[in-house]
Amino acid sequence: MEAAVVSSTEGVVSILLAKLGEFLSDKYVLLSGVRHEIQELKDDLESMNACLRDLAAVGDYHQSQQTRTWMKQVREVAYDAEDCIDSFRYHVGGDRNHDEGLLVVAGWLRRTVLRPLTTLRAMYKLAVEVQSLKARALKVSERRLRYRLEPPAAASSSGEYAPRCYDDLDRRLPALSVDESRLVGVRSKTRAILKLLEHKDDGDDDGLARRKVVAVVGFGGLGKTTLAAMVYKSPAVQGIQHRAFVTVTRSCNLRAMLESLLEQLFAPARDPRCSRKEIMAMEKDEILRGIETKDIPQLLAHCSTHLSDKRYFIVVDDLWSLEDWASLKPAFPDNDKHSRIIITTRNRQVAESCCSLPGDRVHFMDVLPNDQSRELFFKTVFQKEHCPSEYRSLEGISGDILTKCGGLPLAIVSVGGMLAQAENKTPVEWTKVCGKLGSGLSTSAAVRGMRRILSLSYHDLPYHLKACFLYLSVFREGYEIKRGPLVRRWAAEGFVGGGREWTPEEAAGKYIDEFVGRSIVTPTRVATNGVVRCCKVHDIMLEVMTAKCVEENFISLLGSVTSYGRHQHTAATTTGHDKIRRLSVHGSHMPQGQQSRSGGGDEDIFRFRRRRKKGEGEGQDDVLSSVDLSCARSLLMLRCIEKPLPAINFKRLKLLRVLDLEGCRWLSSRELDDICMLSLLRYLSLRDTGVQRLPRSVGRLKQLMTLDVRETDVRELPETITRLGHMRHLLSGRYRYYTRSHRVKLFEPFEAVTIPPGLSAMESLQTIAHANVASSGVAMGELGDLPSLTKLCVMNCEKGPNKWKPFIVSLNKLSYSLRSLSILHWLNEDAGLEELLDLDSPPIFLEKFFLWGKLSMLPPWVSHLGNLVDLSLRENFLDGKEVIEQLGKLPSLLSLKLYYQSYMGRELCFREKLFPRLKQLIVDNMPNLDELSFQGGAPELERLTLAVLKEPADGISGIDKLPRLKEVEFFGHVIVDSVVESMVAVCKKHPNKPRVYRGDRPMEMDSELSS
């Protein structure tokens, strides 16, 4: 399998090289006589891949157009070679099970006559195509030598491009010389940073004397450099004699930084814009005079010695890695002289590592709120804080432009500066700019500069992360990207590989955490244990990614139209790419008022398609009929209400690996049959498609790793599903959400699927959700034969305790593998889960546990779950204070959800020393609850979510004893006003001023509660 061998490969060519290495041992390759040609092709591509990586490390802005063309040719050869291999495997790669329902004679003829002929034909075609590919690869390789396409001489020995000393000086100078009158929101942030610099830790008498580091971290373009420059120029630090402002380049030229540092420290003129010649003319010090001849250790020693007995203030701007800080840190001695260092970075991990001492602080930058965004925009365009009266007609389109900018100061200033210079300030012209915002404005110097700065985040990524990052461009603007589907898609694409320590999905999860840490995606939902469940990409960053994808033919987009009439489909902009490799179709189901990536509504696409049926829209705009998907390996059509490609024939997409049709309600049974002929398919999502049944032919999808039929009407899986030996994730069922944050959710009963016998053959299964225990008795007995199973959700909605016996037997065999377990017995009057009390071998490594069903007592083994992080209970009818005592001693518990009738006691008291790490508590309509009190327990609690049908007789007390409380949320059909009012009053007095939410609405903390 490809995913098993790509853990050490990087990029398009690298994935192919791994596949070629595996393919060389194929028996059909040996028989076809092309092994020698494939080996030569592999050797040529290895050499080209090494050069490709060197050229990619240089970055877009140091590559000639000729170089980019050559890189594109290498990628296309790699794509075509991979298609050749997969096409061959499609024809000869194993039993495709086409024989169901055929007569015995017909089946015999297929096996003995037709299939051998098909194999011979495929082997002949393979030999011809490999020879052609080898010839192409040779020509591409010769072309590199002919045009001398090598990395620039400035490349370092490590292959990283080392820019000249002041390559990024242009990013620092505007910040240092900015007009303060045009700044918005910076002064308050400056005061906040100055306060952090002056902060003294309690109980630390030397807190002000020690050297302190304050790190400012955030997304590129948020104004970190401007903020650091404002602090640098503030009167509070100008009295410090030894100051310097050093900018770190992406590839960290340490010598250049140390030279700049020494020149600023030794120069009598403190203007950082002074050239070296001017500095040398003013300063005759021996250190500066011979600076070019000194090595790096000498330069570090000079800095450290000079500052050892002095108070200093240093700004290290745009730090990229921990290694860069480790190299630069020795220059700054900790001399107990009240010295201060400010670091700006895009990487959260770097910021936290630099601030490792108790007195150090990390300051997180955020986007501008709407009012400050408007003020900055109008100041940039009109030099006024608001829109002038003569331009009132521009206010509406200004809002659309600011929505595209998303509160990013760099984007607002760049676009505003361009509009300020435009001669015609009319709604029509500004609407055109809004429609083109992104790649369409590449001719604007201001926007080019903005895109260059944002691109630095992409270029700083390790090579193996770049494909995963670009893949995020398949999602439309504002789309909330879910962690689970994304990591499963990456694994199916072959972008990530597993190893001994983690699975491909676990490795992919680390990639998401890396993106969050680098501030290039924004988390929108974070679990209690800190795992990012959902995230978004900033709209402007999305434009940068899209332009890169189009340039490299990585992803094609269909569904973008401009907002001023002329339709421009992104798929048509892939100039020079005659083959679509990955296609994302943006559907018409969008939030009201939201626009597509180029500024218009996606509904226009379908109106345009209907006009084409009448003979309109011919010529260049007739792109839909010209889309060729024969080489597509991924097709995503998320939320397409109508079929955007009427002539699409799924069974012709023979090379498809990933197919996501979430929300496509037009899907028919005929099309499902065609999809089941795609033998290379590895990811199939039919979520929310309205599908009622899966065809028996689904058993042909031998490579399938993920099958997602959640939120459909599928209630029974065909028996052929057990033939899918590579299946890792089998997902079905449905949730109902009750809160804005989705923290309160409920499994829909009667939505589980029946799994046929033979489950033990699916040894790769990691996830099963949700299985019907009552109708899947044999399969439940086979669960214990699945060694990789880590997540399991089962439910029973039929009477009879014997329904659980096969499952209980299997559960005893899964004690070491299970990490997440959900058990639902939807029958209050039937204590069908009593057998859980006496498990011989309980799942001791559980991290997440949801138990719905009547019990006489809490299973004793729950008290020994040392790794349990998330516990949810519902309709268990547990009583007695000892239940809370047991749960309160769980050492790792972060989230406790007590749903309806889970606990029947009158008091719910969190005593001291109980729940030491609990961060989230949900209490849902407990019928007997008269008192909820916090008596020193749960000291780490941050979120409290409540649903109460009546005011507890003894009230809710002890909120003031929750020092870390941030949020209180009320939900449910009935919300008691008096309870909310009293909570608002308590939170007003709380030091943290936690927000109080009533349903989706945050309560005004400074005004009376309105009914």
Automatic annotation (TrEMBL):
Residues 586-605 are annotated as: Disordered. Residues 209-386 form the NB-ARC domain. SUPFAM superfamilies: L domain-like, P-loop containing nucleoside triphosphate hydrolases. Residues 474-543 form the Disease resistance protein winged helix domain. Residues 12-97 form the Disease resistance N-terminal domain. The keyword Repeat applies. Gene3D superfamilies: 1.20.5.4130, Helical domain of apoptotic protease-activating factors, P-loop containing nucleotide triphosphate hydrolases, Ribonuclease Inhibitor, Winged helix-like DNA-binding domain superfamily/Winged helix DNA-binding domain. GO terms for biological process: defense response to bacterium; innate immune response-activating signaling pathway; plant-type hypersensitive response. Keywords: Coiled coil, Leucine-rich repeat, Nucleotide-binding, Plant defense, Repeat. Pfam families: LRR_14 (PF23598), NB-ARC (PF00931), Rx_N (PF18052), WHD_DRP (PF23559). PANTHER family: DISEASE RESISTANCE PROTEIN RP, DISEASE RESISTANCE PROTEIN RPM1. Belongs to the disease resistance NB-LRR family. This is NBS-LRR-like resistance protein. It comes from Oryza nivara.
